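Anyone up for a design puzzle?
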């Protein structure tokens, strides 16, 4: 398993920020149909207030309903095309 970084621009509601995500290569294999597939896990987090997402609320007990930190977790499978 190799670990890398994915860096790119993310735009939410007309605000663009550079985002860095962790990428873990989980290997490749052939499926029963002869297709070569590769698996990746992508993870990271962003701060929603960096994108001017300001909605918030509190519960009657004073707890926060929406956190500023948003976790991103993606499991991705890609198929090789000839």
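Challenge accepted. My sequence:
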């Amino acid at each position: 398993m190799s670990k890398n970084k994915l860096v790119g621009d993310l735009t939410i509601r007309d605000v663009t920020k550079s985002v860095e995500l962790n990428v873990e290569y989980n290997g490749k294999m052939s499926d029963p149909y002869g297709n070569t597939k590769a698996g990746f896990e992508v993870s990271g987090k962003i701060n929603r207030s960096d994108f001017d997402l300001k909605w918030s609320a509190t519960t009657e007990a004073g707890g926060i309903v929406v956190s500023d930190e948003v976790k991103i977790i993606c499991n991705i499978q890609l198929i090789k095309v000839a």
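A detail worth pointing out: The chain has a mean pLDDT of 92.
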